[in-house]
Amino acid sequence: xxxxxxxxxxxxxxxxxxxxxxxxxxxxxxxxxxxxxxxxxxxxxxxxxxxxxxxxxxxxxxxxxxxxxxxxxxxxxxxxxxxxxxxxxxxxxxxxxxxxxxxxxxxxxxxxxxxxxxxxxxxxxxxxxxxxxxxxxxxxxxxxxxxxxxxxxxxxxxxxxxxxxxxxxxxxxxxxxxxxxxxxxxxxxxxxxxxxxxxxxxxxxxxxxxxxxxxxxxxxxxxxxxxxxxxxxxxxxxxxxxxxxxxxxxxxxxxxxxxxxxxxxxxxxxxxxxxxxxxxxxxxxxxxxxxxxxxxxxxxxxxxxxxxxxxxxxxxxxxxxxxxxxxxxxxxxxxxxxxxxxxxxxxxxxxxxxxxxxxxxxxxxxxxxxxxxxxxxxxxxxxxxxxxxxxxxxxxxxxx
Length: 400
Known about the structure:
The model is unreliable at about 15, about 365-390 and about 395-400 (pLDDT under 50). This protein is α/β, with parallel strands linked by helices and about 400 residues long. It has helices at about 5-20, 85-95, 115-130, 150-160, 215-225, 295-305, 310-330, 335-340, 385-400, and strands at about 45-50, 55-60, 70-75, 100, 140-150, 170-175, 180, 190, 205-210, 235-240, 360. The protein is built from nine helices and eleven strands.
């Protein structure tokens, strides 16, 4: 018996109609934090250093009247191409920031254990090269770190090592989906320095997504706890929520911070070549297994390249960082951010339904909590005995 294609056609038509009628998510705001009221129309893209040890540099094409605040963007392990975060980098640069993207990893040739030291050297070299540049004009008093996945523990290590003088102290550390932390020297990942050395005036924010929150939550709690000199009033644990109220749905995953943009692809930004190697110099490089990307790291890097720029970028990541950096540069704490209703607001779908808001909470203070003495146990049923008896008689009669 031949089946009619009519039910299939009707199903396809109904799905297409429902998608067309579904509410759409909010777009980038016209102005304000996360908005498109940019100071410049174009971004200068260049690089300093060498092909194997270089930093990508981005800033507006204007000549700023005052030094630019510096944003150091620390990528996830394997995501060495700034094009994977191009949308966010462009937003930051057009808003007036000087963005440094140090390539602290040479895929299949460098180890996670060396990443923090290499990032330090790259940032130091980039700031030295740009110190007298009238267009770059870095402001070392207004510095913020953005770290994605393994970039977050590296950001904290840099902040803990500012006493070396290589990297200026950040006013804000903004971490998304923290991960890649090694618990010992033999384990693959980033080994944390003594985070108690981080300046108490630093504002630290760790955000996870609700679709991959367990490992990020564990890493967030660990780093917030180990940054013990920073008071709890200057720390925030945040979470971005998925929302399928309309179409396309918003999904907060490890790859959500990716905003690929071809204009920022590394192949279009030439790094200076490496100097010729001295043939008399002994090659001490040795390959080790942790130089290769793991399966999850490879998948994450691929997902970053396929992730579309959406509401989560505009309102959960870009807007949140814009508000937090302005507050941090002004010396405000996490409590001030939580008093601002715009900080966690995610606007509304096209039908007026609110998009799920961000959650934000400050960690509990240090030291043991004082427990209140227990009072007398409350009786749950305070009805008089005659009422209970009357009810029993009523039930008995109703069954007879």
